[in-house]
Design a protein that fits this description.
alpha/beta; Rossmann fold; Spore Coat Polysaccharide Biosynthesis Protein SpsA, Chain A; seven-stranded mixed β-sheet; 18 helices; 14 strands
Length: 497
């Protein structure tokens, strides 16, 4: 329950008055809360759709300002805990969803949040329409760290400040549930609060240009015009997803071994590069394996893989032959399934990305700077002959498109060098049914999966060299058409969902 301030702290009296006013309002509204949801059914359905995109089922969820618990229950948590200031709201929630845990309390008070420690840490902490009522956003965010683990995501949903006149009119005309005066903050304000309290914003979304169905017109506009740059920022509903910044990188803690790594090298007709790859990959962590996945070569690549395994007893080198569907995407999946490392990396066997660059990817992961690390070949000047003219400009174009689709700056979508923790890859694989088996390259399967999981994506600029052995296996026109299909696929799954 809300704690009364000591008599010696009169400055807190106005805050208590505001809390009591807010509690009284929501206590009165509790019995009719679901009627208001029904009146604005389209808005709440769309909001839930976005929340389900951010939060897969089966997660441990804490909902701060949970109301009658409808959002929390709709997310199908393995453990669901909701807190609200209003006892009547909590009473309605407990009656409707007895399988979830509900508490009455002030989420701005340590005495409310600290006892949740034994139930945590939580995978997701939700503040939906909550920041507008907080007296001290920064202090409230500071209380959340003990309830998080490194992969926790804070999901904040709120109304755009410039919609205030429209929403006030809606409340006065009986189209919206009544409310009290609240904070009208911009996305920049919320991101600043998060950064002040060591939470790193990693994703923004803008949804619902039209919050009412309007005879079906809203659905079309929200999924098309409402996703366009500039226009989307006019939407009613804004979302920010953040992660807790690591206090101390795990690799620096005494007694904890640095994460092991598997460097996966898919190879087909790359015989001349196999020995060079082994020779040039630095030993950048104590426990490292190099894993070749050979995909039906005709130049003796498989025999060369077997030879280098036996020729270098000082390093852990393994080779497997691709068993399922041909192509790099399938090779990556088979390789990751066989990988023994805590971290998995991809290095293309053509060595156009220098193996000496791999320590940068490892360091970005173990230091906590990112959770999905990928290379960009288009920052530094290209070596002569490294990339054909049409390929270069196609890459530039697709990078702009994917920057918009992912709400994240991407300068290169097709660089094969990528790194992530094995635990995150398993989560991508477990959620693959959302996208399906669609990607022959393997790049987009990982990029889309990382975006869906709200992993922190970090780009490492690298030098791109000309191939010295063999021929490229990328067709400009056939694979260019596939890339256009990827853009449409990504639009449907990541924008018009």
């Amino acid at each position: 329950m809300t704690q009364n301030p000591p008599a010696s702290e009169p400055a807190d009296a106005p805050k208590e008055d505001e809390s009591r006013q807010l509690t009284a309002l929501f206590d009165n509204l509790a019995p009719s809360r679901r009627s208001w949801i029904a009146i604005n059914r389209y808005f709440y359905q769309q909001d839930l759709h976005v929340m389900r995109f951010f939060i897969p089922p089966g997660r441990r969820i804490l909902d701060l300002g949970c109301g009658t618990g409808d959002l929390l229950a709709s997310l199908n948590p393995s453990l669901g805990v909701g807190i609200d200031l209003s006892p009547m709201m909590i009473q309605e929630a407990e009656k409707t969803f007895p399988h979830l845990h509900f508490l009455t309390g002030n989420i701005e008070s340590p005495t409310t949040l600290h006892p949740l420690g034994p139930l945590g840490p939580f995978d997701h902490i939700i503040l939906s329409d909550t920041v507008g009522y907080l007296k001290d956003c920064q202090r409230t965010l500071s209380l959340l760290h003990p309830l998080t683990h490194p992969d926790t995501r804070i999901v904040i949903a709120y109304y755009a400040w410039f919609w205030e006149p429209v929403l006030v009119i809606g409340q006065k005309t009986g189209l919206m549930m009544p409310a009290v005066a609240m904070n009208w903050m911009s996305t920049e304000d919320i991101m600043n609060f998060l950064q002040l309290e060591r939470f790193e914003p990693i994703r923004q979304e803008w949804r619902m240009l039209l919050p009412r169905r309007m005879f079906g017109i809203a659905e079309l506009i929200n999924r098309t015009l409402g996703t366009l740059p500039v226009v989307r920022r006019l939407s009613l509903r804004h979302y920010v997803v953040a992660r807790p910044l690591p206090m101390v990188p795990a690799s620096t803690l005494s007694g904890i071994a640095p994460p092991s790594v598997t460097v996966l090298i898919p190879c087909r007709n790359e015989k001349g590069n196999i020995a060079a790859a082994i020779r040039r990959i630095p030993q950048f962590c104590p426990t490292m394996e190099i894993l070749f996945v050979e995909g039906g070569s005709s130049d003796g690549t498989w025999e060369e893989c077997l030879r280098v395994v036996s020729d270098d007893p000082k390093r852990t080198v393994r080779s497997i032959q691709q068993q399922g569907v041909s192509g790099k995407g399938a090779a990556v999946r088979e390789g990751f399934a066989a990988a023994a490392g805590d971290i998995v990396m991809i290095l293309d066997a053509d060595l156009t990305v220098e193996p000496e660059e791999l320590p940068k990817f490892y360091q970005a992961l173990v230091s906590g700077q990112g959770e999905f690390i990928y290379g960009s070949r288009l920052i530094y000047p290209l070596e002569k002959g490294a990339m054909r003219f049409l390929n270069y400009w196609a890459n530039r174009t697709f990078s702009l498109l994917f920057t918009w689709l992912l709400n994240q700056r991407m300068t290169d979508t097709l660089c094969g060098t990528k790194a992530l923790f094995q635990r995150h890859y398993r989560q991508i694989a477990a959620n693959r049914n959302y996208f399906g088996d669609f990607d022959p390259f393997g790049d987009f399967d990982l990029i889309f999966g990382a975006a869906k999981l709200n992993l922190k994506m970090v780009e490492i600029p690298i030098r791109y060299r000309a191939r010295t052995y063999g021929e490229t296996q990328i067709s400009r026109f056939r694979h260019g058409w596939l890339l256009l299909r990827m853009v449409w696929f990504a639009f449907r799954k990541l924008k018009a969902f």
